[in-house]
Here is the input.
Amino acid sequence: MDESFYKQKFQEAVDAISGREFKDAGLTLSVETILESVALKIYKPEWSSNAESPVDASGRIFFSVWVNDKAIKEEKLYYNIHALKLRNLKGYKISSRSFAEEFRTQFEKHRKNWENVDIQYGPLTLMQGWLTLNPDHIKNDIRSLADQFSRISPVIDQVLSNYQLKP
Here is the structure.
């Protein structure tokens, strides 16, 4: 994998994304190399067990778009939403399975907008899908996926609110 090429394309996509709607929604975007993959992560600090370091927090929810050697061979650009160790989120009492079920029920209304998506995973992967990898269109594909996620991110907030502890 030409890591520098993909990092550049991912960063160009982030730079082209309308910052205002993401900022207004409280979403943060980050391009990084993780597990031999170049990835875009989109998250809210409050969706993590450590708002000071949400990307590395043990408990967190985030959307990811990534490419690695396997994806390139398969000609796929992967995306998913992860919900890791939700019991570690402060101010919530969450069963990962219940959270995943509630999210997937709400996600069904939006499913038609997500290409090649599947929700038949354990509670850590709320949904996952892929687009055909075309290096000439990757910037636009990443932007499109990010925009789609920004439109469904309120679903995560809504489902989380069901598990918020009362003061």
